[in-house]
Amino acid sequence: MRLRPWQAPDAPSLLASYEDPDIRHWNRPARRTPAEAEAHIVRLRDRWQAEEAAIWAIAPAAAEAPALGLIGIGDLDLRGGSGEIVYWLLPAGRGTGAAVAATARITRWAFEDLGLQRLRITHSVHNPASCAVATKAGFPLEGTMRGALLHADGWHDEHLHARLRTDDVPAGHPGGAPGPYGMAPRPEVPRGGC
Prior knowledge:
Elements: E1 2-4, H1 11-19, H2 21-27, H3 34-49, E2 54-59, E3 69-77, E4 82-89, H4 98-114, E5 118-124, H5 128-136, E6 141-151, E7 154-164
Parallel strand pairs: 4-5
Antiparallel strand pairs: 1-2, 2-3, 3-4, 5-7, 6-7
Helix pairs in contact: 1-3
């Protein structure tokens, strides 16, 4: 797997994410037309340029392979030194370790290249898969935020996981050494962005 910028040919992957029941439940994406999906990809690049977010496609290493997931830092606050890691995977990418590897790689990039101080991951307390990704990527649970996010089935309490740049990561942990699970050593960054 590799991390690369979203491209217009990835629009079908976005369309598939809008239809996936798990992604729709936990992330609440709006359903879009193919043209709206392509426009969304343009907005992702615009958010890079505005330094508001840094979002990548998780894709197989083959050059023309379609995206299987999304990973990035939303709510990016360069001045305040923080951001929130967001992710999802289509069914074909689940269970491969890709979400953990991508989260670990983005974390290193954010701390080493951007100089961020704190990253967080939040998820519904009823989403054990996301909790496992956060924990395996070296984000300890800090607490529970009550009634923090509205999902399709109502308000959910959310777990808050976070890491500081100064946190120790145990040797051999995916959040430590570069390039776990075969992930590219550095995510590809669009020109002119973060």
